[in-house]
Amino acid sequence: MSVRVNLLPREFEERSRQRRMVGVGVLVVAAWAALLAFVLLGQLGAVNDAKDERDTAQAEVNRLQAEVQSLAAFQDLADRLNATNAILTTAMDEEVSWAQILNNLALSVPTTASLTTFDGALNEGAPAANEVFTENDAADVGFLNVSGYSTERFAPGVESVLLRFGQVDSFFQQYLSNAAQAEIGDVGVTNFDAEVRLDEDNRTGRYADGLPEVTR
User: Structure pTM?
Assistant: First the structure.
């Protein structure tokens, strides 16, 4: 059996133990520092990525703002066009189809009567105070004055003319202002003057939904 005998002083052994502890501590500190450095580098990378994303987003915002500014002139043009269309639509809202009125007038005259003259006009503003025959001012857009004759005398000739006027949907409040016996050659006739009111069905209404779009 061999026996190991430590001949070194106890102080030397203590210093050796302390040096080993210091070495372990240094290794621990170094490992901790390395870990902190790794974490710090990761954080710096995340910060840089965030900055890059921010710069990219800011560049996109700047681009969009530039586009918006470049389109401002077109928006102004569109606003002016819409305003002009609104003015035209309002102005044309009162448009009346005289072709429709004259066609209805021609179709309503019986074969035993003829018109010699006629004239018409649209209302401007409120009806005159002496127009006591108008039932509905809101629907009254104008009038027709007609003169003519009937070969069937007053009854049933002139009466049938007034009745036929009353059958036209866009005519109303027809009345006789004058009637007189006369002759054309050897034929007895009745001359007459009458007035017919025109309602809002005579409006074209073609711009009620706005002006038509221009296509290219």
Answer: 0.55
| Helix/strand/coil (H/E/C) assignment for every residue in the chain | CCCCCCCCCHHHHHHHHHHHHHHHHHHHHHHHHHHHHHHHHHHHHHHHHHHHHHHHHHHHHHHHHHHHHHHHHHHHHHHHHHHHHHHHHHHHCCCECHHHHHHHHHHHCCCCEEEEEEEEEECCCCCCCCCCCCCCHHHCCEEEEEEEEECCHHHHHHHHHHHHHHCCCCEEEEEEEEEEEEEECCEEEEEEEEEEEECHHHECCCCCCCCCCCCC
Asked whether residue 3 carries a pLDDT value surpassing 70, the answer given is no
Render pLDDT for 60-113 as a digit per residue (tens, 0 to 9). Answer: 888 888 887 877 777 888 888 888 877 777 777 778 899 999 999 999 999 999
Question: Which pair of tokens denotes residue 144?
Answer: 């027709």
Among candidate residues 130, 128, 121, the one with its CA nearest the CA of residue 197 = 121
* CA geometry: angle 25, 28, 33, nearest 5 deg: 125
Cα–Cα distance measured from residue 203 to residue 209, given in angstroms and rounded to the nearest whole number: 14
4 token code pair: 């190991």
Closest listed residue to residue 150, CA positions, set 197, 114, 196, 201: 114
Q: Which two tokens stand for residue 157?
A: 């000739």
